[in-house]
Amino acid sequence: MSGQKKKTTIYDIAKELNITVSTVSRALSGFPAISDTTRQAVIETAKRLNYSPNKLASALKSGQTHIIGVIVPSLQAHFFASIIHSIEKGLKGSGYRVILYQSNESLISEINGVKTLLEAQVDGIMASLSLETDNVDHFSEVIKQNKPLILFDRVHEKLDVPKVILDDFKAGYTATQHLIDQGYKNIAYLTTIHQIPIFSERLKGYKAALADNDLPLNEENIIFGGLSIKDGRFGVGKLMRLEHKPDAIIAADDFTALGAIKKLKEIDQVPPKIGVIGFANEAFSAYITPTLSTIDQHPNQMGTECVKLFLDMIKDKSAHNTSTVIIEPSLMERQSTLS
Amino acid sequence: MSGQKKKTTIYDIAKELNITVSTVSRALSGFPAISDTTRQAVIETAKRLNYSPNKLASALKSGQTHIIGVIVPSLQAHFFASIIHSIEKGLKGSGYRVILYQSNESLISEINGVKTLLEAQVDGIMASLSLETDNVDHFSEVIKQNKPLILFDRVHEKLDVPKVILDDFKAGYTATQHLIDQGYKNIAYLTTIHQIPIFSERLKGYKAALADNDLPLNEENIIFGGLSIKDGRFGVGKLMRLEHKPDAIIAADDFTALGAIKKLKEIDQVPPKIGVIGFANEAFSAYITPTLSTIDQHPNQMGTECVKLFLDMIKDKSAHNTSTVIIEPSLMERQSTLS
DNA sequence: ATGAAAGCGCTAACAG
DNA sequence: CTGTTAGCGCTTTCAT
Fold first, then answer.
1. Tell me: the pLDDT tens digits for A227-245?
2. Which of A85, A116, A159, B56 is most buried, judging by how many CB atoms fall within 10 Å of its CB?
3. Torsions phi, psi of A142, nearest 5?
4. Taking CB atoms and an 8 Å cutoff, what residues of chain A touch B284?
5. Which of A 183-212 lie inside 8 A of B, CB atoms?
6. Within its chain, how far is the Cα of A285 from the centroid?
7. pLDDT tens readout for residues A276-321
């Protein structure tokens, strides 16, 4: 035999000390009305018997798992990895833990995620929607169960819950204005076909900036495709076949911008000859050549705000919190737009 | 009132249909000896009452959570994010889910992670050790509980469990041989002070390749520091103050290699003038300038192998599996070493 | 300060 | 094919 099979429970501790499980439970959980002697004995015995609490049982009984489910489109994007990191950091000391679910930009997978997390009895959910998510009914069960739900970055208006978002309009506006300030006059825009607000807001910001600067809006300049390195290349290909070729390109994320740059280099239009700016300030953006101008979305700040909202909601379950925290984007000027 | 407070349980379904919970439980779990009529009725009622199983209760009773805990140093490294991704992919359809824990390269945090996962009653653990981990006692409890433990990439010899690793010796050898083949003769090596096998094996490979090519080993050329962009810059600074300056640099990871390249560009020794090669084939490595030669560690293959091992162990708990799966590294030749 | 006992939601051995 | 019943390990109210 390689040691006893069964794990030690509070019953074992109780038996060992000739007291009851209630006393053990109290001693272990810091209940005040327990004599110091007893508490010491319990703690010592627990250690000696190598006791490890079964959180499952505790959660089943108390109805609280102290686990928060976080749904993100993908961990491969540094942006989301950073948010996760700051959420975990912010939660430190609160007793809450995070369990992660990746939707891989798929609606079906996201629906499954909500279901799984709910079945796992998480105490709340933080989510950033997939590109495919045009319907958010799958979140209604979270609300029905009266569990905190917080949306961040990729949100949906139909969901009347607290949100942490970037000022995406401003982000789009800032990127565009920056290009205009650099002397670019015919600015193209590569974005996604998916109708999710974050991207349409940025596009609105782009249009507004053009208008404010008395620059014409050329619909041909707006390419609706995917978001990836490949799509960036593809988009540039399309743009370069236009009669009136653009002199600058805004890509809805840094991956797409990277693809655009690669293609531009191949056709000898190396930025900043044609300006390129992206969104998200990905890990690579400062290191490619030319370095990529982009909009920083402050993931750490986003994570921190999510945690703040969550802890508030836990504290005051009754208050129907629907506040929206808006993060200010920052322009990162780099070589790809410095003409 | 915003609807009933309590969640529906199998009791509610049973009451609704005038049957017992056991029947409901069986009907829901696909138990064969249940009449089709009953099963249909149960499923229909479950749907109507918006039933969602409480996995906690089921796990408590059955002793199985169907959750695997995965411990990684950091999600910010694309390498680990990829492994996670392939683990989840490999697990699809098996009924197992992953919960993630980041050690942030800290031993204390890693110890905490094991404890937390065990308390959460995970069915097994897959782990890649932190840089600080020089002692692995915290994993003994996992083994004692007879739960599958699998180590990947960053492993430890003291742990007699199945492992999935890169052939790190070969990786180091290959990188070195490649530089030699390219005509470099005085090759430096930037690595970590931490004594973890993955890095010492690579270093051994480096030394062996030098010896096999009758090249002298110059201890001054080996810098023991940290692994980061900053450390890469710092390492180059140190190397450039040597009397006999190296003409190529191996960095123990791509981040360090990136830092090295940045510094070299500043002092006008742009690779491949001084060759630079890294390890891990990070997301940015193909896109920086010059593009970074590196050793691909096949994270997807690693994840897949981990899953395979895990499922085997679950299937056959008795067999003391201690097999080690060794992944072959691949050289990615890029501009930074092509002289 | 401590004990007794009920029960969280589910599973499964045993009966019928 | 279905019901009865006993727990999984813990928390918590009500006693004492």
1. 999 999 999 999 999 999 9
2. B56
3. -60, -45
4. 283-284, 287-288
5. none
6. 19
7. 999 999 988 998 889 999 999 999 999 999 999 999 998 877 667 7
What is the rounded distance in angstroms from the CA atom of residue A291 to the CA atom of residue A286? 5
Tokens 């899953």 correspond to B307
CB contact under 8 A, B60 and A53: no
CB A56 within 8 A of CB B56: yes
Q: What is the pLDDT of residues B293-322, one digit of tens each?
A: 999 999 999 999 999 999 999 887 766 778
Write down the architecture of domain A10-53 according to CATH.
Orthogonal Bundle (1.10)
CA angle A315, A320, A322 (to 5 degrees): 105
Mutation for A interface: B50, B94, B100, most A CBs within 10 A: B100
Please check the confidence at residue A1 and state whether its pLDDT lies above 60. no
Partners of A88 on chain B (C-beta within 8 Å) are 102
Reported residue count of chain B is 339
Coil, helix or strand at residue A316:
coil
- Say if CB B136 and CB B163 are below 8 A apart: no
Residue B301: the pLDDT is 98
Task: Round and report the angstrom distance from CA (B62) to C1' (C13).
Answer: 13
Q: Which pairing describes strands A330-332 and A293-296: parallel, antiparallel, or unpaired?
A: antiparallel
Q: Is A211:A152 a contact under the CB 8 Å cutoff?
A: no
Contact between B155 and B199 under an 8 Å Cβ cutoff? The reply is no
Q: Which of A5, A59, A288 sits opposite B287 (nearest CB)?
A: A288
Task: Report the pLDDT averaged over residues A93-106.
Answer: 92
The architecture CATH gives domain A66-165+299-328: 3-Layer(aba) Sandwich (3.40)
Distance (Å, whole) CA A80 – CA B20: 46
Q: Which of A55, A76, A81 sits opposite B121 (nearest CB)?
A: A55
Q: What is the pTM of this model?
A: 0.90
Is some CB atom of chain A closer than 8 A to the CB atom of B62? no
Paired with A330 in beta bridges are A296
Tell me whether the CATH fold assigned to B66-165+299-328 matches the one assigned to B168-297. yes
User: Which DSSP category does B288 fall into?
Assistant: B
Q: Do residue A289 and residue B289 have CB atoms under 8 angstroms apart?
A: yes
Average pLDDT, chain A: 93
Collapse the DSSP code of A245 into the 3-class scheme (helix H, G, I; strand E, B; otherwise coil) and give the result: coil
Across the interface, do A85 and B76 touch by the CB < 8 Å criterion? yes
**Nearest protein residue to the C1' atom of D12, measured from CA:** A22
Size of interface A-B (CB pairs under 8 A): 97
Subunit contact B287:A284, Cβ cutoff 8 A: yes
Structural tokens at position B240 = 């450039």
Residue B153: Cβ within 10 Å count: 24
Tokens of A266: 């191949």
User: Is there contact between B18 and strand D, defined as CB under 7 Å from any strand atom?
Assistant: yes
What average pLDDT does range B56-67 have in this prediction? 93
User: Domain A168-297: what homologous superfamily?
Assistant: Response regulator (3.40.50.2300)
Please check whether residue A262 touches B, CB under 8 A: yes
Instruction: State the pLDDT at residue B318.
Output: 66
Nearest to B7 among A57, A145, A283 (CB): A145
Contact B143, B149 (CB under 8 A): yes
CB of B114 closer than 8 Å to CB of B141:
yes
Locate all alpha helices (DSSP H) within A8-164, ordered by sequence.
Answer: 10-17, 21-28, 36-48, 55-62, 78-91, 107-119, 140-144
Residue-range domain boundaries for chain A: 10-53, 66-165+299-328, 168-297
Q: Is the CB of B19 under 7 A from strand D?
A: yes
Which B residues in the span 277-306 are in contact with A, Cβ-Cβ below 8 Å? 283-284, 287-289
Tell whether B326 lies on the interface with A, counting CB pairs under 8 A.
Answer: no
CB B75 within 8 A of CB A85: yes
